[in-house]
Fold this protein.
Amino acid sequence: DQQVKQNSPSLSVQEGRISILNCDYTNSMFDYFLWYKKYPAEGPTFLISISSIKDKNEDGRFTVFLNKSAKHLSLHIVPSQPGDSAVYFCAASPLSGGSNYKLTFGKGTLLTVNP
Amino acid sequence: GAGVSQSPSNKVTEKGKDVELRCDPISGHTALYWYRQSLGQGLEFLIYFQGNSAPDKSGLPSDRFSAERTGGSVSTLTIQRTQQEDSAVYLCASSPPNQPQHFGDGTRLSIL
């Protein structure tokens, strides 16, 4: 069973507009959530994270929102730029003993930002 | 180098052969992880090292898969008697304690 779900395989937005990428999870033990960005033939690059004690974390153009009751998180990119075009993976982990490991990933969403 | 380094970047081998994949983590990172990504799938956890110990091997798909880490640094993932379903991109990541994982570019393994 998929414990982390990204239901949109792809998303296309215009440059300058907002991109919203969504992620749902089923495991109540997940305490720590991350977004990674991946270009073809490269490894995933860490973007932003949030722990379950927060509902929002912001870093420049990237904001992650967490709704624990709905087991849902989203990544907002504002404004979107063509260089943001990549596959975005949502990942989750239980904070076991204070250390995160054993990330569970969604299948990814391909974001295309059109000039 | 500054990042996680994996070798080889590509490996093509015949079914039944053994393969060895290497990971050089970022210097000073105590934790090291192996994942694999099959076509159209997300990353799947394989094994986690803390130092040279592997507290969690739960993701290894079969006893044909093994991994070791020496000197708290380099790790090798070995797949014996490869099967076609082993074809995937194998990714290594490392991290300091309580920090996000940093990934290498992976080894693309193709079993003919």
